[in-house]
């Protein structure tokens, strides 16, 4: 697996009760989410996507990831932070 240059290391998956928590350390501001099958799980707090963090965390139901056996990390680097509608790069 080739890591994107914005990742500090490979994603790590932790089992917590009946969920998996996927942690991704990063070196720049970005919004991030994970796709599992046709479902999407965001790194958010009360519906607001987190971007100014060193580690992103997405919580996925254990049963779903056990079924699909794979996930895809998606992200958008923040180009310019604004109060509403920050400018981001395309999805990677």
Describe this protein's structure.
The protein has 92 residues and is mainly beta. It has one domain. It is 8% helix and 49% strand. The chain is built from 1 helix and 9 strands; from the N terminus they run E-E-E-E-E-E-E-H-E-E. The strands form 3 sheets. Strands 4-3-8-9 form a 4-stranded antiparallel β-sheet. The radius of gyration is 13 Å and the shape is globular. The model has no long low-confidence stretch (mean pLDDT 93).
Question: Could you list some keywords that capture this structure?
Answer:
globular; 3-stranded antiparallel beta sheet; 92 residues; 9 strands; mainly beta; 4-stranded antiparallel beta sheet
Characterize this entry briefly.
The protein has one helix at 62-68; strands spanning 12-16, 19-25, 30-36, 39-42, 44-45, 48-49, 55-61, 72-80, 87-88. The chain is mainly β and 92 residues long.
Instruction: Report strand order across the widest sheet.
Output: 4-3-8-9
Number of strands: 9
Q: What share of the residues does DSSP label as strand, in percent? A: over 45%
Number of helices: 1
Measured between the Cα atoms of the first and last residue, the distance is 15 Å
- Poorly predicted spans: none
Please state the average pLDDT score.
Answer: 93
Q: Structural class of the helix and strand makeup?
A: mainly beta
- Report the principal-axis shape: globular
Order of helices and strands: EEEEEEEHEE
Instruction: Kindly give the count of domains.
Output: 1
Query: Residue share in helices?
Result: under 10%
Largest sheet: 4 strands, antiparallel
Report Rg: 13 Å
């Amino acid at each position: 697996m080739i890591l994107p240059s914005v990742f500090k290391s490979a994603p790590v998956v932790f089992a917590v009760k009946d969920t998996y928590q996927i942690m991704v350390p990063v070196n720049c501001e970005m919004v991030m989410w994970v796709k599992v099958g046709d479902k999407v799980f965001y790194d958010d707090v009360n519906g607001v996507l987190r971007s100014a963090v060193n580690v992103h965390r997405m919580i996925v139901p254990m049963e779903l990831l056990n079924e699909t056996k794979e996930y895809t990390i998606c992200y958008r680097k923040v180009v310019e932070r604004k109060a509403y509608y920050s400018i981001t790069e395309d999805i990677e």
